[in-house]
Amino acid sequence: MGTREQLVDSARELLWERGYVGTSPKAIQQRAGAGQGSMYHHFAGKKELALAAVRRSAEELLAAADEQLRTPGTAVERITAYLRRERQVLKGCPIGRLTQDPDIVADPELRAPVDETLTRIRARLAEVLDEGRAAGELPASLDTAALAATIVAVLQGGYVLARAADRPEPFDQAVSGVLALLTTH
Amino acid sequence: MGTREQLVDSARELLWERGYVGTSPKAIQQRAGAGQGSMYHHFAGKKELALAAVRRSAEELLAAADEQLRTPGTAVERITAYLRRERQVLKGCPIGRLTQDPDIVADPELRAPVDETLTRIRARLAEVLDEGRAAGELPASLDTAALAATIVAVLQGGYVLARAADRPEPFDQAVSGVLALLTTH
Q1: Residue A116 lies in a domain
Q2: Which of A160, B101, B109, B177 could cross-link A147 (Cys pair, CB 3.0–4.6 Å)?
């Protein structure tokens, strides 16, 4: 792996673990085993490197969501597969956690890839729900955009509950609760 | 207001805005208009001050939840009142946001009041759902503990979506989605 890639990987890990405010350029360089000169050769600064890191994490997240939502089955089965897939629950979401970072939300450029990723996941879930509604599996009156927001919120909030408790059970409960409501339709 | 109270209030504001990692003792002192000596007269350090601040925020949050959940009406009406009450959506939750703070979740003492607050809100919601189930308003098969976790997760995740978008609409959508599922029972 080249130095540029090592810097992006180290930035992804540190942003996930410590957030943007809690990550110094020096910490990224140390984890990447790269010098200061090398970092500034590849990136104008912490912000440019963070943007590259966030974009890479976003791509992986969207690809993973797409894989689960593409599986054969009914809409509810596909959403169940997405919600139940193996996750590092106690680490939380590498994208969602950035919304608690004051320097990310205050900067439109840094916030943009976070917003875009969550918006695309909601849109993808709404598509699946639309298919379920068209197939008569879900009620015709269902507001699929709202329910897609609920499903993503359950994941993001489930991480919050699990991290507070330092165990994954509250995440699993939150997911079970929404799936129980969804499957009784 | 005495200096001690001013320090706790400033710490609460800064923890809400910038988190624990992003808040220095100096920033708290400056916002409180207090000197370093004065802070260390009242508190052993940043951690002790943060604990006092988190406990105060937790009390307010629990009192507000209790007020909404105590209103007359059916279980679903009371939960609707709780979910729809006026909130500073773009600021997020002063307690939930701390779960994204690496120094909070790594320290059992700092994590304890965060966990306890979210656990108590879930327990309170489960009680309301239990009452609705006993009254025949909700199905007998309902897992009320799981659904309580879902409801708190929708709030916490709704903040994530709203902060990513820099507008409150995704929060409102997430809440509408779960209420629609709940009311069709």
Answers
A1: yes
A2: B177
The residue of chain A nearest to residue B114, with distances taken between CA atoms, is: A164
Closest CA to B27 of B43, B41, B15: B15
A134-146 pLDDT per residue, tens: 999 999 999 999 9
Residue located via tokens 């994941």: A155
Residue written as token pair 């009371």: B78
Considering the domain boundaries, does residue A79 fall inside one? yes
Tell me, yes or no, whether A2 lies in a domain: no
CB of B58 less than 8 A from some CB of A: no
A185 pLDDT more than 80: no
pLDDT > 90 in chain A, percent:
97
CATH number at residue B75: 1.10.357.10
- Chain A residue numbers with beta carbons less than 8 Å from the beta carbon of B22 are 21-22, 102
- Which residue in the block uniquely carries the two structure tokens 């059992």? B108
CA distance A145 to B173: 8
Spell out, as residue ranges, where chain B has pLDDT lower than 50.
Answer: none
Closest by CA position to B71, among listed B62, B81, B63, B61: B81
For chain B, the straight-line distance linking the first and the last C-alpha, in angstroms and rounded, comes to 50
Predicted-complex ipTM score: 0.96
| Mutation site, B142, B173, B175, interface A, largest A CB count within 10 A | B173
Instruction: Tell me the residue range of the domain where A87 lies.
Output: 56-183
